[in-house]
Amino acid sequence: MKCPYCNYNESKVVDSRSTEENTSIRRRRECLKCGERFTTYERIEELPLMVIKKGGSQEFFDRNKLLTGILKACEKRPIPRKVLEDLVKDIERELRNRMETEVKSEEIGEMVMERLKNVDEVAYVRFASVYRQFKDINIFKQELEKLLES
After folding, report:
1. DSSP string of 4-54?
2. Domain of life of the organism in this record (predicted)?
C-alpha cells in the first residue's frame, strides 16, 4: 500500500477492525519509511447489477429504490422497518449470488411479492395492485381469491 505522505510502497498493518455493518475492514497502517500512520478500507468488490425494465431500458440496481417501493405498500401497516430492510437484503443477496450482471424488473417484483405474502397480506395486495397494474376490480378479485386459497 502506497503511503499518502511519502509515496513509499511498503507499510505494516498496526490494527484491523470490521466496520459496524461488517461490509468492510478498516486497517490502520504505518509507513516503513516515514513512520506516518494512515487508514485504508478493504471491501468486497461487487459486480454492478443492472435491472432491465419492462420497456427495455436499463438502470443500476438500487436497494433504496426497492425499499422505498416496499415501504409505500406497507404504509400504516404494523410491520417493523427492520423486517422490510431484511427482506430487501435477502432479495439483493439472492440476486448477487446468481453471479449474473442483469436481472429483469419482473423477477425482482415477483421476489418481493413472494416474500410480502408471508409478511403481511394487505401489503402484498397493495404491492401486487401497483406491480401488476390491475386494470379493473375483477383482476383484483382474482388475486384476492388466489391469496385466500393459499
Report:
1. TTT--S-EEEEEEEE-TTSSEEEEEEEETTT--EEEEEEEPPPPP-EEE-T
2. Bacteria
C-alpha distances out from residue 8 to 27, 39, 40, Å: 17, 15, 15
pTM of the model: 0.66
Residue 63 CB partners (closer than 8 Å, separation 6+)? 88, 89, 92
Residues 31, 6: contact at Cβ < 8 Å?
A: yes
Task: Name residue, grid cell 431500458.
Answer: 57
All residue ranges of the chain with pLDDT < 50 are none
Q: Domain-by-domain residue ranges, the chain?
A: 11-43, 50-149
pLDDT tens column, 104-143? 999 999 999 999 989 998 898 888 888 777 766 777 777 7
